[in-house]
Specification:
280 residues; alpha/beta; Rossmann fold; 2 domains; five-stranded parallel beta sheet; 10 helices; 10 strands; 42% helix; 16% strand; binds NADP nicotinamide-adenine-dinucleotide phosphate
């Protein structure tokens, strides 16, 4: 069966809207600042999507579009200003950044309590401890999608891809949900032998059709986080047509995990506003 991100998204949107209304009743209006450096098409459309989704949820999105030539110092100055503002609860710096800017310095400049992306070293450390308030958005989206169809506890999960953005945080969250996990990457030997054992298979690699039918255990839940463009069409890392009859559930691309990711960012923003205003 197709694990439809859009259906889960409707539920999530309602949950977030309700929480936003609760906050507004207490005179807290959740707000997210999005910093875009340069005018790359992908960053431009990501910012546009965030603004649109924020509007639909009642969350204010302040878009800071900065020149590609901005100095690192000036970018850090902008972040510090946003850190100091009481009316901004979350800060997102769009990646990638131009080569003359040190990404680590930028991520570390964001106040941990406003780091709704969850990549500040303090929050990333807390992720492993199980105490971060802001689990990274894509990993949260993946866990929510899996939980909507199966119980995670006791399952054997294989995560293909070990990026800090998707693979590692997803593995940690699955472990917290009491799955037994294995993480595979480009140097993993006999990938297929591993993936064929997985009750839950999560793929975040960036290679179209990497995972075919022969890589999947019958009845497995298959989550495809990959986003690739072929001839102008979006496809995932899983060969959807060949795997769909083998898996019990499979996320499509588009319309799967990608749909949920931005919502998780807003869920984190609402949480940030709640924590900053000491609302329990
Ligand atoms: N849905 C969303 O919200 C979302 C969010 C972020 C990214 N994405 C998409 O997810 C995909 C991956 O992005 P990412 O940032 O997670 O990863 P990434 O940083 O691009 O790294 C790719 C990972 O895949 C591994 N890999 C490469 N070739 C492999 C192979 N043949 N077999 C097994 N593993 C292999 C790499 O191993 P090594 O570590 O050994 O190099 C690495 O860990 C992209 O298509 C991206 O657009 C989607």
């Amino acid at each position: 069966m197709i694990l439809d991100g859009k259906e889960i998204a409707l539920r999530l949107q309602n949950e977030i809207r309700t929480n936003v209304e609760e906050l507004k009743k207490r005179l807290v209006s959740p707000a997210l600042a999005v910093i875009q450096v340069g005018e790359e098409k992908a960053s431009e459309s990501y910012a546009k999507n965030i603004r649109k989704e924020g509007e639909a949820l009642g969350i204010y999105v302040e878009h800071h579009k900065l020149s590609v030539e901005i100095s690192e110092e000036d970018l850090l100055y902008n972040i510090r200003n946003l850190n100091a503002r009481k009316d901004i609860h979350g800060i997102l710096v769009e990646l990638p950044l131009p080569a003359h800017i040190n990404k680590a310095k930028v991520v570390e400049a964001i106040a941990p309590e406003k780091d709704v992306d969850g990549f500040h070293p303090i929050n990333f450390g807390k992720l492993f401890e199980g105490t971060t308030p802001f689990p990274p958005a894509t990993a949260q989206a993946i866990i929510t999608a899996i939980k909507s169809v199966v119980t995670i506890e006791g399952k054997f999960a294989v995560i293909v891809g070990r990026s800090n953005i998707v693979g590692k945080p997803t593995a940690v969250l699955l472990l917290q949900e009491n799955a037994t996990i294995t993480i595979a990457h480009s140097r993993t030997r006999n990938l297929q032998d591993l993936t064929k054992m997985a009750d839950i298979l999560v793929v975040s690699v960036g290679k179209p059709k990497l995972i075919g039918r022969d890589f999947v255990k019958p009845g497995a839940v298959v989550i495809d986080a990959g986003i690739n463009k072929i001839d102008g069409k979006l496809v995932g890392d899983v060969d959807f047509d060949s795997v769909k009859d083998e898996a019990s559930y499979i996320t499509p691309v588009p319309g799967g995990i990608g749909v949920l990711t931005t919502l998780m960012l807003f869920r984190n923003t609402v949480k940030a506003a709640t924590l900053q205003n000491r609302i329990v």
